[in-house]
Amino acid sequence: MLHTVNKSVFERNSLQSCLNTIDDSSVILLIEDGVISAAKHTKSALLADLAAAGRVFALQGDVEARGISSKLADNIKLVDYEGFVDLVVEHGTAVSWV
């Protein structure tokens, strides 16, 4: 399952709620202000573990728009809009955490 998170960890607890719910087949895509969670100083230990397993993505345009490209945590994979669509197709079901 694909989980999209569009709120900053400083604004809402959407990412933590998502992390508390996901299963072993889930991947997370950070979009809009959710990409702020991909910065090195904000990630949780669970997010780091998921990123190391190749299960955390961030929308490249949103990362660039927020000026955090150089601050991304290790193992966060950047995807463009085509990659976003590929993730939706690959995982079938998407859940949005707002």
Q: Would you give an account of this structure?
A:
- By secondary structure, the chain is an alpha/beta fold.
- The chain has a single domain, classed as 3-Layer(aba) Sandwich (Hypothetical Protein Ychn, Chain: A).
- It is 34% helix and 19% strand.
- A five-stranded parallel beta sheet has the order 4-3-2-1-5.
- It starts with a strand and ends with a strand.
Structural class: alpha/beta
Write down the overall geometry.
globular
Number of domains: 1
Radius of gyration: 12 Å
Mean pLDDT: 92
The amount of beta strand, in percent, is: 15-25%
- Classified by CATH, the class is Alpha Beta
Main sheet summary: 5 strands, parallel
List the strand order in the largest sheet. Answer: 4-3-2-1-5
Looking at this structure, what is the CATH superfamily?
DsrEFH-like
Number of strands: 5
- Going by CATH, the architecture would be 3-Layer(aba) Sandwich
- Low-pLDDT segments, ≥5 res: none
Order of helices and strands: EHEHEHEHE
Helix content: 25-40%
Count of helices? 4
The CATH topology is what? Hypothetical Protein Ychn, Chain: A
N-to-C CA distance: 16 Å
